[in-house]
Design goal:
about 40% helix, about 240 residues, six-stranded parallel sheet
């Protein structure tokens, strides 16, 4: 890796292409999702080695409930298995785990596992691993607006003095800084209702590879591309 001082602190991932990867290999879509879970584990380990501070994975969107019921049920079980096995590794390696998104209609058994995993790793100070489950960017903004409105009605907040930074404190992960880099696989060039507010000044990297083929070396390539860019946050580059 070049320029270790310019490693992104927070990388977000839209893990696209599991189904197409499986179809091209004559496998079921669920096989593609299972292989995708393996890549999440690999990227977590690679991110820790590269001294990245936060990784956020778009695991299941609010729109994904429209998929066939059998596929949704299998995805829920994969997430549960991930929590049962991976949290042991995360906790042992001082990593913190958290989830963003709405609780309902996530199955109760999975909600319980999520709560237990978050509580178990809450005091850890290493890599922060965020899973977006039953998450939608527009829904997050609406939920934040509702929370702010309730505070305004009870006198805890003043609408006239509201600023962007204050409003962001009402989001699901208010203590998580915005991503420096968004990576989306399978060459799709859209953000699909993911972190709409937080991605305002993030750098985007679109990989041609399907998510099951996106490993450590591909992550390093994305970071190298990020290191070539200059982030101005709407300002000018003044020598």
């Amino acid at each position: 890796m070049q320029d270790n001082l310019k490693i992104p602190k927070h990388i977000a991932f839209i893990m696209d292409g599991n189904g197409r990867w499986a179809k091209e290999k004559g496998l079921s879509r669920t096989c593609g999702h299972l292989e995708g879970v393996k890549r999440v584990k690999e990227i977590i380990r690679g991110a820790s080695q590269l001294k990245i501070k936060i990784v956020t994975f778009f695991a299941f969107s609010t729109e994904n409930w429209s998929r066939p019921r059998n596929e949704v049920n299998i995805l829920m079980r994969y997430l549960a298995n991930f929590l049962d096995k991976e949290i042991i590794y995360l906790h042992k390696n001082n990593m913190r785990f958290t989830v963003i998104g709405r609780d309902e209609p996530i199955p109760k058994y999975l909600q319980a596992k999520i709560k237990k995993a978050q509580e178990k790793t809450a005091g850890n100070t290493g890599l922060k691993v965020v899973l977006a489950i039953n998450y939608g960017g527009r829904q997050e903004i609406v939920d934040a607006a509702k929370r702010f409105a309730r505070d305004a009605l009870t006198g805890k907040a003043d609408p006239d003095s509201l600023e962007a930074e204050q409003f962001s404190r009402y989001f699901y992960a208010a203590d998580t800084p915005d991503p420096d880099l968004l990576i989306r696989t399978s060459e799709e060039m859209r953000i699909s209702n993911f972190l709409l507010w937080q991605l305002s000044y993030s750098e985007f990297y679109f990989s041609k590879k399907y998510w099951p083929d996106f490993g450590i070396e591909e992550l390093k390539e994305a970071i190298k591309e990020y290191q070539k860019r200059e982030r101005r946050f709407g300002g000018l580059n003044v020598p």
